[in-house]
Design goal:
Blueprint: H1 2-19, E1 23-24, E2 28-42, E3 45-61, E4 67-86, E5 91-93, E6 96-98, H2 129-143, H3 148-152, E7 157-164
Antiparallel strand pairs: 1-3, 2-3, 3-4, 4-7, 5-6
Subcellular location: Mitochondrion inner membrane
Protein name: Tim44-like domain-containing protein
Keywords: Membrane, Mitochondrion, Mitochondrion inner membrane, Transit peptide
Length: 165
Amino acid sequence: GCTEDAYRMLLASVRERAAAGVSMDSEILSIDDVELTAARFLEDDPVLIVSFSAQQINCLRDKVGNIVEGAADDIRAVYYLWAMVRERDVGFDDDGLSDAGADESGGHSRDSAKDGGGGADGGGDGREGGQKRDEEAAAAGHEAGETSEAHDKKREWKVMEMVIR
């Protein structure tokens, strides 16, 4: 559908930069105004719409480190709107986007926006709510005889489509 097309266009852009040896500065100065904007079903799959703003560096460098676009001190306010779904055929790998199978998992997968738990309210043990719940679920699954292989197959939230302005 159109979401896969948008995703593949983003993937093509990332791969084009990588092939040219151009890398984007990954420094994010702040993330603000994170909001779970909507929760809907697309067919039988839940979709979460998350919006947030980021202050980030706009700087692209070539293979030897020369700036080809932006500047090392070019700070931009960028607004994101992410549609997140449970595992899809298109996912992330260690280098960014991947069009390989859903078994791949990288550092880019996201938990739902409103995790709760373990925060400044004094509850919990300092871990973020999602991490704590994942660990508790793993422990409960282990007690119930669930194998680690079954735990590994649980679906993670992935960005299906993103809008940047």
